[in-house]
Amino acid sequence: MLVSMNAMRTYEMVSFYAKTNNKFMLVIDNTRWCFLDSTKQQEVMAYYDEIIDEDEIQEIFREDYTFYEFDTQSAAIDKAVEWFPLSTQLDDQDYFIEAYVINPTGAIPHTSLVPPGRPVDSE
To answer: In what order do the strands lie in the sheet with 98-102?
Structure first.
C-alpha cells in the first residue's frame, strides 16, 4: 500500500508563506516561455521589456517561477495588472505569462488567466 507523503504544490507553499508572514504574494508562472524557441523568447522578452521594471525583467525571465511579496493586496494586484496583461488582451498567446495574487487567507483575488467564455471586468 502506498502512503501519501503530503506532497505540496506551488499554491500550497505560497499560500502557507503568505499566511505565516501576513503578506500578499504575486506569483509569476513563466513556464510557458521556457518552451518557446529562442527567436520567440527574444520577441516575448522585448515586449515585456517595455512594461516590466528594468531591475526586475531579468529576475522574471531567469526562472520558471518568480515570487514577490507585498504588504497590501492592492499593491500586489496593481503590480500584476501593470506588468501582465490578461490572457484575453493578447493576440498571440505565446506572449501570455500567468500572474496571480495569493492573500494570507489563501484566496486568489486576481489572476491574469481569463477562462474562455468568461466576461472580463475592465481593469
So the answer is: 65-70, 24-29, 98-102, 110-111
Q: Is the pTM of this model over 0.85?
A: yes
Give residue-wise pLDDT tens across range 46-66. Answer: 999 999 999 999 999 999 999
Residue ranges making up the domain that contains 43: 10-111
What the block records as the C-alpha cell of 100 is 496571480
d(C-alpha 20, C-alpha 105), whole Å: 10
In a domain, 1, yes or no: no
Domain membership of residue 121 (yes or no) is: no
Q: Is residue 86 part of a domain?
A: yes
Question: Tell me, what amino acid is at 4?
Answer: S
Q: Read off the DSSP letter of residue 50.
A: T
Instruction: State how far the Cα of 84 lies from the Cα of 108, in Å rounded to an integer.
Output: 16
CA 111 to chain centre: 7
